Amino acid sequence: SLASPPSSAGMGVSPSSLPGAQRCRGGSGELWSSAHHTGFPLNSSWCQSSILQGCFSGSTLGCEPEKCVGNDVVNDLWSLCRCCECLRCCGRREPRPRTVWLGHPEKRDQRYPRNVINNQKYNFFTFLPGVLFNQFKYFFNLYFLLLACSQFVVEMRLGALYTYWVPLGFVLAVTVIREAAEEIRCYMRDKEVNSQIYSKLTARGRLRGSGIQVPADMIFLRTSEKNGSCFLRTDQLDGETDWKLRLPVTCTQRLPTASDLLQIRSYVYAEEPNIDIHNFVGTFTREDSDPPVNESLSIENTLWASTVIASGKVESHGKLFLREYIGLFDLEVNCLTKILFGALVVVSLVMVALQHFAGRWYLQIIRFLLLFSNIIPISLRVNLDMGKIVYSWVIRVLGNGVVFPSMVLLFPGTLTQNEMVFKRLHLGTVAYGLDSMDEVQSHIFSIYTQVQFTPQEPPAVKGLSLATKVRRTMSSRVHEAVKAIALCHNVTPVYESNGVTDQAEAERHYEDSCRVYQASSPDEVALVQWTESVGLTLVGRDQSSVQLRSPGGHILNFTILQIFPFTYESKRMGIIVRDESTGEITFYMKGADVVMAGIVQYNDWLEEECGNMAREGLRVLVVAKKSLTEEQYQDFEARYVQAKLSVHDRSLKVATVIESLEMEMELLCLTGVEDQLQTDVRPTLETLRNAGIKTLWSAWHRPTGTERAHTLLNSTLPQVTNRGEAHLELNAFRRKHDCALVISGDSLEVCLKYYEYEFMELACQCPAVVCCRCAPTQKAQIVRLLQERTGKLTCAVGDGGNDVSMIQEADCGVGVEGKEGKQASLAADFSITQFKHLGRLLMVHGRNSYKRSAALSQFVIHRSLCISTMQAVFSSVFYFASVPLYQGFLIIGYSTIYTMFPVFSLVLDKDVKSEVAMLYPELYKDLLKGRPLSYKTFLIWVLISIYQGSIIMYGALLLFESEFVHIVAISFTSLILTELLMVALTIQTWHWLMIVAELLSLSCYIASLVFLHEFIDVYFIATLSFLWKVTVITLVSCLPLYVLKYLRRRFSPPSYSKLTS
Fold first, then answer.
1. Helix 964-986 to helix 847-877 angle, to the nearest 10 degrees?
2. How far apart are CA 725 and CA 858, in angstroms?
3. Tell me, what's the pLDDT at 83?
4. Over residues 232-253, mean pLDDT
5. Could you give the angle at the alpha carbon of 778 between the alpha carbons of 308 and 520, nearest 5°?
6. Taking CA 134 as the corner, what is the angle to CA 131 and CA 140, rounded to the nearest 5 degrees?
7. Most confident listed range (107-116, 325-334, 763-772)
8. Is residue 41 a contact partner of residue 30, using CB atoms and an 8 Å limit?
9. Which pTM value belongs to this model?
């Protein structure tokens, strides 16, 4: 993700979007350009990992021209194609290496897809058929469609057509409107980003556009910045929020102007596409020079610009297919619906059997199926969906209100603040902490002041030469360590205008107030800032030199001969520099203790002190050095250049050459940097653990001191590279008990490749699993495997674009808005600002939403079963006739305006206060056991429905007078009052809206009696006889339930009742 430096005004692109209105064909060989940039679009970079957001605008990466770092920077870029094999237009063939010519589009060997994004599920023609198909492919909706269609057959018609089509139409209308709104939103967003226009450089000149965003990967060709480099951020690719140093191709950097790029004959050879985001192998060849120039290309020469890294299935137009989430609660409700359908069929068959299957009995079965269709409530799905909208509004998230009751597997991403503070310097015999840094400063000052010097001869030279003649003092040891830390890094100081001093003057005089540091890791910046605080300041750096400033203000110049950047495989970085004042060549290296222990000279304190510092939560680095003669370096350089030009096994050959230097290095010091945890991480994890979320999987993308502490206190799986090592280590780990597992991404890949079942079995038995340096695809794979192996619900928490694939794979995704952007939060079901809010999201909102949805669904089922029971009693009394008890508006009004508001008001109910739910996370365990919605509670509600329906119907039959219409009046009024009283019985904490809903529904029913003279005798309901009969029936149906509720709370109270009292 190309982005602006910290002080620049960056321009962003929405997640999962790819600009490219001026369509660029991948591999076209055309040069992309702007006023300050030139590039060469080859094709988009599609990989199955996470969504990558990028922008490239202004004088440097992602900023306005007047606000950039290094004014008038010209970055000439060559876009490089890395088309994924999953693109259908490219076929299912194996990915192959390719050669792309600079400025010669006619030499491309194949066509590539257009770089456009399309996140819509439907188009104009497929929208309505697609939405209807997705609705009716489920049995629940298909059943009601068949019922409604059956009313067109005269023999099956039971009443007016609108009694069946209006409810179904309402449900479909809500769904269509919701889908249409989502499609329009996606269309507008895609149209906006696809309309972005970029410029390109041609032989006739530069074509300007409104934007400068290229939908392709880039090879960095040229920059006018004098340090010959640029920076980019990859936070949406690998989670790192820090600046990465990128270097241009050497031979193109030497060209006088950008237009000269079109005059040379050159091409790039690129490796086949792959999902490794940390490595790239290629070569740049210029044919028109004598002799031809060959340069090796690595990840340092590449830039990502406006590139989409998509998770899921990718089509030729970048269409991302997101799976539809079906929660556990939805599955439970579907299961209950199937039971109700079975009951519907059984009741219908019993009714026909009691008629001894007389006459056209098969038609009677269908009529009874239609008559008792209320057993399956059509309004259930609408109520639950509307409830989720209410929950989402309450939580204030950008999600779909997914109800997640029983999370037992949690996948948090990085839990640190990503802010580094230097804490410890250890020299073996002495250690310096924050309270003793003044001693380090005094040692550095003494080295540069203990001998008189002239401006032509820097003081450090005499100081060091003196130290070599006598026994090394503590000051010289501290100086060597600090100088190594100040030189061995990839940090670049950048000078900016501060309103008083302009940029050029600040850079010329190394103004401290105008200097900011850019680096690929916050650790690096923290180390360089610490060396500045103790007196040795990094004031300048370019591609070939480094300048340090001593406490006395003198500039120390060093020439960079070679840089070996940090990689996850090597776990170390090195640099070879030449001191311009003495000509001495020194190889500095720093890295993790596990690899540096075999590189440095023998000592008896390294392992112990690394363990001590790691237990304090510090990120430990080992710093070492080695002096080289001129002959040794020349021999090394020849072998190193030859290895870098190799196309096959380049990494292995380069590593072999570098390892020839990494022997018997002098151990200088250990550094300890602290990356503090986010606020209240430990209490939040303890809360989740107490709530029954038992297995904690942490998939982090980089090693930290916390992980190192896990390694020491529990158990780590050593690095494994083949099947044999994996077999031995897994067997060794099997013999350990009750210990956490710490494993790296490389080892995880080997274990899952050969021993997937065995590894997952062992991992599931561990109380916690920490996965270090995981790729985005690995995070999603872990979540998917845990779902398959355990059958449990998973919750993934992430804060960066590299967590998107994991979030979308989990049953519930939670995105944390932080320094790494909003891509994770936009892709998730729920969005929070800090990790600590996850506790409240689960313990309060998650618990309340599940219990409310459980109560709502069971009450909707009770409402339908009650009227169905009355219909069954009515039919059995009248010789099993398939005649409806209520017709027309009565049957529609019963489930809508008469009872809808009170029933739906259950979404506002709660059993305990939010503070109590947070204080006692054990309350969440009831949800893990499924107590709010289980077969037991379902059976209780079924019995209540049968009891109340029978009492109301038999009471109306016993108390009615001569007119049948009196039965309808008495029974229907008693039914409405019973439902309102049952809502009151179910509510545990009253809300003022609940009272309003009850009174509103009762008022609507009383007011509508004037218009229901077709079904109800208006004069009869005004008599005293009607009133006492309805009162008696309602009391008999409800009063016993109130008594039972009181007795239950008195002798068997629920767990939360003790807390509320």
1. 160
2. 54
3. 35
4. 71
5. 60
6. 120
7. 763-772
8. yes
9. 0.66
